[in-house]
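User: structure tokens for this one?
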Amino acid sequence: MMKYILFKSPEGKAIPVVFPALVKHSDMAGTMPDLTPVAAGFVRVGIGEDCTPVLKPYGSNMSLSLGTTLAAIEAFDQMNSEIY
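Assistant:
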């Protein structure tokens, strides 16, 4: 299992960060003090229509009191399309 946080930069850019489940959301957020966490949860890895891996955000977390939002889903969709 993996976790994610969607950060917003001071310029307003969405920045999804994926990290191991052993790391707390709050600890990861603390490593990026210039960014604002706007969504957070977990990442499901699936297989797309063209057999490429697809990362999908879901759920929520307690340490930041944030969950998956439409902005997070859109950021991951964009990231998936740019990777492959």
